[in-house]
Amino acid sequence: MPRAATTSDVFNAIAEPRRRDILVCLASEEQPVSALVGALGLNQPSVSKHLKVLRHVGLVEARRHGRQMFYRTNIEALEPVREWTRIFERFWSHQLTRVKQRAEGGSPWSQQRRRSKT
């Protein structure tokens, strides 16, 4: 089965680790391409290529200021990813509960036995 195009949707676009790195760099503030090149240690054409994919699916927005292009993350476009990960939150929550129970004095089973004795 052929792989879907990287520009077909948000999930395919963020499948590439360097594009995820770009989104992380842009999460806190708007930045020009030159700052991304420096932060990521990639060459300018490579960063521009990844930004083009991210722009195509709406994950980043661009603004021109003089001769420079500034990019920022479009948080709303990440909503499908957020919604998808919500499916798994109950598993993470359950794991955190188990870790907490173990840290507070034993396994969930020993705590359950203690409660049934009282």
Structure description:
The chain has 118 residues and is mainly α. It has 2 domains: 10-73, Arc Repressor Mutant, subunit A (Orthogonal Bundle), CATH 1.10.10.10; 89-117, no CATH class. It has 6 helices and 3 strands. The protein has helices spanning 10-13, 17-27, 33-40, 44-56, 79-103, 108-117; strands spanning 31-32, 60-65, 68-73. It has a 3-stranded antiparallel β-sheet with strand order 1-3-2. A hairpin with a 2-residue loop joins strand 2 and strand 3. The longest helix is centred in the last third of the chain and has 25 residues, at 79-103. The N and C termini lie far apart (59 Å).
What are the low-pLDDT stretches, counting only 5+ consecutive residues below 50? none
The helix/strand class is mainly alpha
Termini separation comes to 59 Å
* CATH fold name of the largest domain: Arc Repressor Mutant, subunit A
Spatial order of strands in the largest sheet: 1-3-2
Question: What is the count of DSSP helices, taking H or I runs of 4+ residues?
Answer: 6
Major sheet description = 3 strands, antiparallel
What's the rounded overall pLDDT mean? 86
Large-scale geometry: elongated
The succession of helices and strands, N to C, reads HHEHHEEHH
Count of the separate structural domains:
2
Rounded radius of gyration (Å): 21 Å
- CATH top level of the largest domain is Mainly Alpha
The percent of residues in helical segments reads: 55-70%
CATH architecture of the largest domain: Orthogonal Bundle
CATH superfamily of the largest domain: Winged helix-like DNA-binding domain superfamily/Winged helix DNA-binding domain
β-strand percent reads 5-15%
How many individual β-strands?
3
